[in-house]
Amino acid sequence: MSVKAKFQNLMDTQYSRPAGVLGWFIGEKMIRQHKPETLWTIEQLKLEDSEQVLEIGCGAGYAMKQIASLNGSHNVTGLDLSETLLQSAAVRNKKAIRQKQMSLVHGRVEEMPFPDEKFTAVFSIHSVYFWEDLFKSLKEIERVLTPGGTVLITLCDGKDGEDWDTIKKMIRSELLPMMEQLKFMDLRVLEGPVSRGYHTVAVVGVKSSSR
């Protein structure tokens, strides 16, 4: 394997599961890079008072910190595969964690360690690309959501005016049909901000109140 290929493999691994000093650096870099779509995503959640919110792929905890600072007494849980980023999130949110307004959990979206119907809102920002089993992940999200709860999945589908056909096809042919199969209602694709040339969208659905 060439040096370039080894470096690319290292970076791909670090972005999916950051570790060590390089992982910490990447976590802080992602906060800076993703700030516009992070703030937009939180706005689209339209949180009401005292919501139980789960972020999948919470990274270094910037989005969670923003939600915890909102008026409304929300309780926020962050799930991530990276122990390095969870440590960063813990430092960034030590006050909210101490006040039991926030908790951090190491785990996989395909097998979440939460009881049924725990959260009123679930969201992720740029983590869906790394989910190993899309249907199993969505089924887990449906399980942990309360009836009437919202899921919002933010991702990029193009850059500098060029569409990413693979991502667009995944949304159209996999993500939305799977969510429909799981009885999510009010399915929509929202147009988000352009950040560093990347075009942001969010797939939104509401868990059915009836079984």
UniProtKB/TrEMBL annotation:
Record Pfam families: Methyltransf_11
Keywords of this entry: Transferase
CDD domains, alphabetized: AdoMet_MTases (cd02440)
Coiled coil feature spans: none
GO biological process: sterol biosynthetic process
Keyword Transferase: yes
InterPro entries in alphabetical order: Erg6_SMT_methyltransf, Methyltransf_11, SAM-dependent_MTases_sf
Annotated ranges, domain Methyltransferase type: 54-153
GO molecular function, one term: sterol 24-C-methyltransferase activity
Entries under PANTHER family matching the protein: HYPOTHETICAL LOC100005854, ZGC:194242
Name of the protein described by the UniProt record: Methyltransferase type 11 domain-containing protein
Record organism: Rossellomorea vietnamensis
